[in-house]
Please model this.
Amino acid sequence: MAKEQREFRTDPLKLKRLRLQLGLTIEAFCKETGIDKATARKLFGGVPVSMTTLVAAAEGFGITNHLEMLHPDELAAVGIDPDAAPSPNQVLEWEIESPRLSGWLRTANGLQYQLARAHHRIFADRFARVKCYELRHIPVKDRKPLDQHLRRHADVCSKIGRHPNIAENITATTTEHGGLWWVIDRWDEGQSLETHLKEGALESARLKSLMLGIAEGLHALHEKGIIRRELSPRSILVRQSDGSPVLTDFELAKLTLGKPTVKPKGSWPEDPYLALEVTGAGGEDERADVYSWASRRPDRRSIQICKRSTPWPP
Model:
């Protein structure tokens, strides 16, 4: 009987790319993983190493499946087809459609993202709105502080549950060893309010319905102790089916009950809809959202909806 294989050869080109991508020197890699330099040289040189070393290296790179680092010959030896790699356009069970819905956009805290539509790879009639954050240029050690920003949208959607004027989140995940962060929401056919406003002023009846829907969405947030803070036309989707609004992009919302405040380092971008107190020391409350909403010339009934959860500012 052949002796059991106890050491495994890695793919040196893949490991070199990962190390350079994360900005790690050999010394920094050894310090991060606890692997000594001699073993690290074997690892990066394609010389077989122990499974313990392989697992430690995977953790250092932020890889959840250490088999991803194996040489194609090793993959074949354990019954894995090295050519059956997932498509770069696949995220979990979703397939990203081309072209994407946007170029690279930027949040108030400087993170870059793109929007895309995706279809379910098994159920052809299911679609999702996908937001992809680009983190590959950020060193691993600097990504962790961003977690509370990136998780905030899913947290907010979970607290609200199903609501006709709030985005419905499906899940969030990472790929590229933590270099890409994906937020996956239920698909609503439509365009942003920003896009609609570029086409001209809205007629009064349509504007009234839109304002009522935005107010209802804000009211739902405020009831759960959530302040939107960055309400703007770009973060409001207008459904094609009935013209109703959907509030989305909650990465910089403020949860006043039990979670730390998330806000950009440095200054907020210039925004005519942003309340002045939001750019200060963080003492804002629900009235900041009412200010942003009122910048759209609300009608009397809409004002009453917002008054349910917060006094009208003087």
User: Anything to note?
Assistant: The two ends are 85 Å apart (CA to CA). The CA atoms of residues 68 and 179 lie 15 Å apart. The longest helix spans residues 204-223.
